[in-house]
Design goal:
The protein is of the alpha+beta class. It is built from five helices and nine strands; from the N terminus they run ααβββββββαββαα.
Length: 183
Amino acid sequence: MALPPDNLLAYPADLAVWLKVPADDPDLLAALRSASSRFVSDVRHPVRLVTGDTTILYGDGTDRLLLPAAPVGQITSLTVDGTAVTDFKVRRDIGALLRTSSCGWPPWAEVVMVWDHGYDPIPQDIQDAVIGQARIVHAVLPGVQTVQAGGESVTYGAAAATGVTAEWTSAVSNYQLAHGDRT
């Protein structure tokens, strides 16, 4: 199955089933864009497949470089200060490069990589978490926890108050890069 459209991490038709509105409903699409964008922000990498991406990193004197996305697909080219290198291994699942020569990645050396990364198809647990978050975004008025009209009152659940579900937290934890860059 092809990737969802327009940088979405789930299919509008799947959310439409839950919301009982057409898949092209503007509010549905806005909620799905918001949830997709938030997921990408929370995991700190694009998630969707990106091909031919050029990334510039800088050597730090060690034999490992952590990449800004995962999973790693094809690495088309890799240069260190303009010189092509082939003496590396890649840890595709976590996004890391190991320099197999004894010189490692020289401090401050410019490492330019052309590569493919991300998911195609989007894993189902990501789609489920994004759809769940989009359902919340679609249903909740911004900043409102309780709505009362006459004798009727509706209080939104803990997910609406805290902003995320356990399903969301689990998916973010599973796909967040474990590079120790979070404070």
